[in-house]
Every structure is written in structure tokens, then in C-alpha cells.
Amino acid sequence: MNENSRVKFSLSLEPAFQVIYWSICWLLFFSLLIVALETQTFNLILIFMVILVGILIFYGLGSTLQIKNDSLKISYYRGIYNKFIPIDEIKKITFSAKREVNICLNQDNVVHIYLNIKNKKKFYEYLKKNAPLIFLEEKNNWDELSKFE
After folding, report:
1. How confident is residue 5, by pLDDT bands cut at 50, 70 and 90?
2. pLDDT tens-digit map of 66-92
């Protein structure tokens, strides 16, 4: 990889947690809307709810996967939770048919990340082109079902 390369992909949260997180955001937004329509004046509760919804949306959309200086930086909630993985430690990366991407490390640890389909394709193409030493595997859902037979 190029020493000065900086590439950024937008991460998704784990699917079950993502549903809960965005449901809370929508619940607060519609509660804000109801309070605004019922009171029809600016008050402290309305201002507090606007700030709270804004903060939740700001942090919720800030999960990224960055590749820079020969390491992966996984950052959730605009940097509140960070994880750095050197490229040298990655044995293989498995791409599932859905959104999950498994990063297998040399110490037999597996890091699970979730990307939308467009970003997963871009990430796969970037690694295929710029990191030929990393083994890339596409996992099919039918592979898991054949284990049970």
C-alpha cells in the first residue's frame, strides 16, 4: 500500500443495534414534532430535544473505516470508539453476501464490521487493487447451510 494513501468508507452499526439506535432517534424526532405542534411556542423542552436529536444524528452518521499509513482505523460514533489494525496483522478478509465483513487477524482474532453494499464493493475493489497480499474471500450463504447436511 502507498504510505500516504488515505481512503475512507462509511461503516454501519451492527444490524440489531442499528435498528434500536435509529428507532430511538426517530422516536425523539417525532416526540419533538408533537411537542412543537402542541405548544406552538419555543420552550426549554423543545430546545433540549432539538439539541438531543441533533447530537444523536451527528454521532450516528459518524462511523467510518479509514485506511491510512498501512493501517485500518475503525471509528464508531465520530471517534468515541476507535480500533487500529495494522495491515501486516491481517490474514484474510471475508465478505458475506449481506453487509458483514470479517477481518481475520494473525492472532486468530476476528473483527466484524458492517458496510452497505456500495461501500463493501468499493472496499473489496480497493483491497484487491492495493493490497494483493491480503487473501480476500467471498462467502456465500449456501456454504453455511452445507455444513448441516
Report:
1. low
2. 888 788 899 988 888 899 988 888 888
- What DSSP letter does each residue of 33-96 carry, written as one string? HHHHHHH-S--HHHHHHHHHHHHHHHHHT--EEEEESSEEEEEETTTTEEEEEEGGGEEEEEE-
> pLDDT per residue over 43-70, tens digit each?
888 899 999 999 999 998 989 998 887 8
| C-alpha cell at position 23 | 428507532
Those residues with Cβ within 8 angstroms of residue 4's Cβ, 6 or more apart along the chain or in another chain: 69
DSSP helix/strand/coil, 7: strand
Q: What is the bridge-based pairing of β-strands 135-138 and 90-95?
A: parallel
Q: Is residue 20 helix, strand or coil? A: helix
Report the Cα–Cα distance between both ends of the chain, in Å, rounded: 42
Output the pTM of the full model.
0.78
- Contacts (Cβ under 8 Å, ≥6 apart) of 106: 89, 90, 91
What distances in angstroms separate CA 101 from CA 35, 50, 97, 115, one per listed residue? Answer: 41, 35, 9, 7
